[in-house]
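User: quick one, fold this
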Amino acid sequence: MAIGAFKLSPIDSMLCEVHYLPLNIRQKYLITKFAAKKMSTPQTGLIRTISEPYHKHLLKPLYIKLHDILEEISFNISNIKQKEMFPTIPPWNTNHIEANTELTKFNKNNTPHSLIINTFYEIINTKFKNYYHFYTDASKTTNETGFAINHRDEYSLHKLDPLSSIYLAETFAILEATLTALSSNHVKVLILSDSMSAVTSIANVHTKCNLAQSIQNIILLTDKSIKLMWVPSHIGIPGNELADELAMKAASSPDTKIYPHVTYDDVIRALKTKLYTLWQNQWEKQSNQNNKLRQIKPLTKKWPDPPVKLTRHEETMIARVRIGHTRITHSYLMRRELKPRCKTCNCELTVNHIFLECPTYHNARSKANINTSSLKDALGPGQEKNISIAKSKSLVGAFAIKHEKASLTKFLGKKPRAKKHFNQKPTSDFELYSFNKLLLL
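Assistant:
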């Protein structure tokens, strides 16, 4: 294993240690991701298969497994917006979409808003004279997402699936404004948005966002002049302020018209969140007795980066003590012996006992600054430096009894360097232990 875990370590603990989805959950993720990919692709025969009800079979085919997964995690992929398979316009004929971002030179936090507004009107009157204005904005709360479009005395509100991100909500708003502009009598249209990411994505001919590509195709194929402009939010531009109010209303109002689509990217993002939540629920159901790592790592999230650079040996050592399976505590399983017991306390020898309880190692724990309040405090994130200090020669040498020195060295997985020839008989118990037991981790 990449983490160097000890033999017979629990699989669930090893997967959580490296933040890798369990295989049964990963299978659900891959099946659902495959189906979502096909649902977003037009003219695929799987759309009908996935969408229709099914009958029970003795052997479940893929689409029946998919239905079971979607029902288990309460997930829906039937409303994914289909991608455009090929660009409508050849790349060599593609013109750049004009997107004005001149107002980015102002920092609204330390620039008078009146100066930004005056510059805004100056740009409008010089570069976009006689253009009809559409203002767009989006709003997202914990459970609701919506966007709004306003132009003069008219406006429209739309609510998106809660899975939608704020970026795609802003892009959907620009798409809807573009479609509205096509059906209007205005030949020159300027769409104003306060989302820099959405505006620059649409203006980028190499964008990977399929929704932005759809907007590009619409703008480039029409005879009308449709241009984009970025404006900073909450500085007092009337059209943008109104769009912001309408977007919040769109997200919160139960009467808002629901936009029927959600993008593939948002579905995959929400799917990952669902499955990682499922993994967390499974992790919490495991007992601390069978899963020792859960005492130290109650969440399945990835470990933060350690405060010090660790060697490969130190990474292996830390992974073993966190999982709770080390050579001194679990090698008896391979040798078919009884569980080891602490000679000082006459109790079962465990990671918890050595790091928190055993008086034999009190001085060692103190010198390594190991917090003995709980196993999480002793071996949790940020304690890598202390754990690595605990295995150093100077600390191990602090134990007067050779048995203690050998036990801690064996427990932490340190390899002593044998300077004597292998044919020469060792002269001490520790050397005997080093030669016979510690040649390998």
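User: anything notable?
Assistant: The chain has a mean pLDDT of 80.
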